[in-house]
Design a protein that fits this description.
Blueprint (H helix, E strand, L loop, with lengths): L5 E2 L4 E2 L4 E3 L2 E3 L3 H15 L3 H14 L4 H13 L3 H14 L4 H13 L3 H14 L4 H13 L3 H14 L4 H13 L3 H14 L4 H13 L3 H14 L4 H13 L3 H14 L4 H13 L3 H14 L4 H7 L1
Helix pairs in contact: 1-2, 2-3, 3-4, 4-5, 5-6, 6-7, 7-8, 8-9, 9-10, 10-11, 11-12, 12-13, 13-14, 13-15, 14-15, 15-16, 16-17
């Protein structure tokens, strides 16, 4: 949080509330004392006590914008979202140039899936503080939720420019590139995300899917095997390995992977369908017919299964 004040040629008028070295001050010494006590209580995890002190501060000095902001932040920690929203609104009313208040209110809107208002608040943050990475990152997510792909990519790109070590931004932008079939760009982003966070199975899975789209089965196997190390019960991973094995004409390996996928998810009609195709290539028609029958039982509307069985 920062001080907001104007310097005039003759007189210097300092706004009654400003922040210095993590402490809040007001021209009303009692209000300042209450806020400092609130900060200490909040630091120690005593949230109800912190709310009491911040409430005393605003009662003593009703124009104390940062006291409302701090109480709103504590309300957020206490899951009192309506209380937090009210305090952020008041903080913004008293200090319309306080970027953090818009950011915190935007996050409330984002969590409530009110993406239009969230985008408005994050845009205001960017107007006031253009180097605030979180504003671009969260606005990008709001755009993503509204399927505004280009706007989301632009925001994630700016977030990455400001903070190159933010793996989630690479992940989301990489997934957006996949939506528009830019698989090589997706792989570049996901590789960067893995470089920053090599212990994320989700990142290996996402990059494996991108390689899968390019039919680069060697890298698919490598990434999906790494993803399986983190998530051994994910049937989708084995299904993709089976599809790649089939793409390479290794139908025996395909069957083994489809077996595992079905073991983990016995309601996967696509697993039965694709294993049936692999059995067909292996001339095991009896097993193929059983799999096609099971796939039809699970999904009677899949015409390709009927066609293959016929």
């Amino acid at each position: 949080m920062r001080a907001y004040f104007k310097i005039y040629p003759v007189l210097i008028f300092i706004i009654a509330v400003f922040i210095s070295a993590g402490k809040l001050y007001s021209q009303n010494s009692d209000a300042a004392k209450f806020v400092n006590s609130g900060l200490e209580s909040e630091k120690n995890g005593n949230y109800e006590e912190a709310v009491f002190y911040y409430s005393m501060a605003v009662e003593t000095d009703p124009n104390y914008a940062d006291a409302y902001f701090n109480r709103g932040s504590v309300y957020c920690k206490m899951k009192n979202i309506s209380g937090a929203l009210g305090d952020y609104n008041k903080s913004i009313q008293l200090n319309p140039k306080h970027a953090e208040s818009y950011l915190k209110r935007g996050l409330i809107y984002l969590n409530a899936k009110n993406y239009k208002n969230a985008i408005g608040d994050f845009s205001k943050v960017i107007d006031l503080s253009p180097a605030m990475t979180e504003a671009y990152y969260n606005r990008g997510f709001a755009h993503l939720m509204q399927n505004e792909v280009d706007a989301a990519i632009d925001d994630y790109s700016k977030a990455i420019e400001l903070d190159p070590l933010k793996p989630d931004a690479y992940l989301y932008r990489g997934n957006l590139y996949m939506q528009i079939n830019e698989y090589k760009k997706a792989i570049d982003d996901l590789s960067k995300a893995i470089e920053n966070n090599p212990s994320s199975g989700e990142l290996y899975k996402a990059r494996g899917i991108a390689y899968f789209k390019l039919k680069d089965c060697g890298n698919v196997f490598s990434d999906l095997d790494r993803a399986i190390e983190f998530d051994k019960n994910n049937s989708e991973l084995y299904m993709m390995k089976g599809l790649c094995a089939a793409e390479q004409k290794d139908f025996s390996a395909a069957v083994i992977n489809f077996d595992k996928a079905i073991e983990l998810n016995s309601n996967c009609d696509e697993c039965y369908y694709n294993r049936g195709r692999a059995f067909t290539e292996l001339n095991n028609y009896e097993a193929a017919l059983l799999d096609y029958g099971k796939a039809i039982d699970l999904n009677p509307n899949n015409e390709k299964t009927y066609n293959n069985r016929g």
